[in-house]
Amino acid sequence: MVSANPASALRPLPVLLSLAGSALLLAGLPARAQGLSNMRDQLIIHYCTLAVNADFAKAGKPAPAGLAKDTCTCVAEQVNARASIAQAETICKQQAMGKYNLSP
């Protein structure tokens, strides 16, 4: 079945772009100790999850189960691996699109 408005199916994808806003401030924090690194990861994941869920809510669609957790964990891991926010966003967006069968 073809959707009457195929663009509406694509609206949640910009959520991955909005991750940069939340994670950008946190990514610049130095990870001086293991505890701070864990705290930073938790903050990145928390604010990323809020952004993912908000974007899907704006689109009037439920987020696929596990999408926010997978995507936001990916972002935190990429930031810890010294990827830039833009790099983390690109990598995690591609992974989510493939895993959850989302269109660009």
For the biggest sheet, the summary is: none
Q: In angstroms, what separates the terminal alpha carbons?
A: 19 Å
What structural class is derived from the secondary structure elements? mainly alpha
Please give the count of helices: 4
- Using the CA coordinates, give the radius of gyration: 14 Å
Number of strands: 0
The averaged pLDDT comes out at: 75
Q: In percent terms, what proportion of residues is strand?
A: under 5%
Overall 3D shape: globular
Summed up, the domain count is 1
Strand and helix order: HHHH
Low-pLDDT stretches are 1-10, 19-27, 29-35
Indicate the percent of residues in helices: 55-70%
Provide a short characterization of the protein structure.
This protein is an all-alpha fold. It has helices spanning 14-27, 34-58, 67-80, 85-99.
Fold blueprint:
Blueprint lengths: L13 H14 L6 H25 L8 H14 L4 H15 L5
Helix pairs in contact: 1-2, 1-3, 1-4, 2-3, 3-4
